[in-house]
Amino acid sequence: MLIYLNRILRSAMSGFKRNGWLSLVAVFIMTQALLLISIFASLNLVIGASIQAVNERIDVAIFFKETVNQSEAITLKSQVEQIDGVKQVIYVSSQDALAKFLADHRNRDSILGVVSKDENFLPASLEVKVTDPYLIEGIVGQITKGEGGELISQTSLEDNQKLIEQLRNFGGFVQRSSLLLALALIIIALLIIFNTIRITIFTRREEIEIMKLVGATDWYIRWPFIIEGMLYGIIATALSLVLLYIGYLTLAKPMVANYLISTTDSPVFTVGFFAFLAILQLVVGLVVGGVSSYWATRKHLHV
Amino acid sequence: MIIFDKITKHYGSHKALDNVSFSIRPREFVILVGPSGAGKTTLIKLLLCEEKPTFGSITIDGKDIHLLQEKYIPYYRRQIGVVFQDFKLLPSQTVEENVAFAMQVSGKPDSEINKEVAKILELVGLKDKAHNFPRELSGGEIQRVAIARALVFRPQFLIADEPTGNLDPANAWEITKLLLKINSLGTTVLLATHNRDIVNSINKRVINMEDGRIVKDRRKGKYDYK
Questions:
Q1: B188 - beta bridge partners?
Q2: Is residue B21 part of a domain?
Q3: Is residue B186 part of a domain?
Q4: What is the count of structural domains for chain B?
Q5: Average pLDDT, chain A
Q6: What percent of chain B has pLDDT over 90?
Q7: pLDDT at A263
Q8: Which residues in A132-289 belong to E strands, given as ranges?
Q9: Which is higher by pLDDT, A113 or B21?
Q10: Bridge partner residues of A86 (DSSP)
Q11: Mutate to test the interface with A, among B45, B83, B105, B147 (most CBs of A within 10 A)
Q12: Does B10 fall in a domain?
């Protein structure tokens, strides 16, 4: 078995070398496709982290009418806690709200001047954290239309909603366009590798004919070509990982540090994510390389 | 024992072989003669399982070779040595590598291949040319490389399709003598040829074919064509 493997590998390597520039083009296109897939995955991650950050920072606040007393508010709080998708509910009394407001604006004397500690104009509220940003609308709807609806004066839903909607739209756009491009490049890579293998088969047709005559099995003849195709995938993976890392260091890392709104200290790009990318690329590279050469051998290798 | 039983092969409306029956005993030396288009090459293709007969069967030691499953055909071919008029050697590989190539395909370890290749090259008289490339050899020597390659699996059966077709008389004789020697060592030989002198001087069984049919089959035959 090992002998077969060794001989098949050697044969695949020589095919790769013999094809010269064509091999390079195949590797190049494949690298681009893999890079795009990785960029797509990375953007997905960044946008996901941004949405999460937005959600964690500005939760939905539900403001009570002035007439609502504390016990009514606490009753509603426990009702809200029962709703699916609600992670946490915090009751913020009128006094708490004022204290927070003063703390937030402690350096702005002009604002502090107009606020009187005796005439508290801030309403009591419930701060609702949800498990999934996509649920916010539904949850707020349930609360305002439910039994406690008449206690509520307004919610902060509208403001949050806009920001989240924008993020979602941007994310969706980036996802669709990068996926489409990656798909197009994968198809091009498939065709180029297919053609490369076809040429390898053509230049080796004499050798293949003789192999058949001396009793080489189908797969002994076929495997070198398939491995040659997979080799394109492996080399492209290595190349794109190097490029990706350079891109991460020069572009993504400073960008995330400067612009990403994040309350969590955990880094967006973890070692685990890079490992995931490497495996994803390798799998895509191997499958695309292997499938296109298998297809070429099916079509052009009459064994 | 190889038995051709009522073999018929059509290519479209053309009958390449028409109801051909004969048998070859173990260790026999059989010469197939006949003009171009008589069906010799078709017969050899059928024997190598490159094609299937339209009717009839070929059995070797009781087994119908065309009932073999596709995946067993390579293993079957290893039991048969074949030599062609155009040699079919790899120009970029040395004599030794060309012969070893056939054994590599079967997954034999390198040590065994080296030993076996050396023995076979000695048998065909090319021990000194092991590291030469085919272009550095004479026609007769090239054909001996091809014979060596056909013999590495120690086949019981050697098919030679016009092996002397591209050779001058002296080289043709060399090759014929080598085939006779291989036959005397116990290998059944089927030789398809146009070479009158060779057929007439070696006194072996001759099967004459014309238009896809066997017209004569004699124990010690002659070449009857002009």
A1: B157
A2: yes
A3: yes
A4: 1
A5: 79
A6: 58
A7: 44
A8: 152-155
A9: B21
A10: A130
A11: B105
A12: yes
Residue ranges of alpha helices (H) inside A82-156 are 94-104, 109-114, 136-145
Query: What chain B residue is nearest to A215 in terms of C-alpha separation?
Result: B74
* Cα–Cα distance, A30 to A185 (Å, whole number): 7
Identify which of A4, A7, A217 has the shortest CB distance to residue B74. A217
SS3 A89: strand
Give residue-wise pLDDT tens across range B77-120: 888 999 988 888 988 889 999 999 888 888 888 888 999 999 99
Kindly report the pTM of this predicted structure: 0.65
Residues from chain B that touch A213, judged by Cβ atoms under 8 A, are 48, 77, 82, 88
d(C-alpha A263, C-alpha B176), whole Å: 90
CA distance A3 to chain B (A): 6
pLDDT at residue A118, rounded to an integer: 63
Domain residue limits at B175: 2-218
Residue B224 maps to a domain: no
- Chain B contact probe: residue of A4, A14, A213 with most B CBs at under 10 A: A213
Q: DSSP class of residue A250?
A: I
Structural domains for chain A: 2-54+164-300 (no CATH), 59-155 (3.30.70.3040)
**Which of B70, B77, B109 is the closest to A215 by Cβ?**
B77
CB B225 within 8 A of CB B28: no
Tell me how close the Cα of B94 comes to any Cα of chain A, in angstroms: 14
The enclosing domain of B95 has a CATH number of 3.40.50.300
Q: Which residues of A touch B (CB under 8 A)?
A: 1, 3-4, 7, 206-207, 209-218, 220
Residues in Cβ contact with B155 at an 8 Å cutoff, skipping those fewer than 6 apart: B78, B79, B80, B81, B187
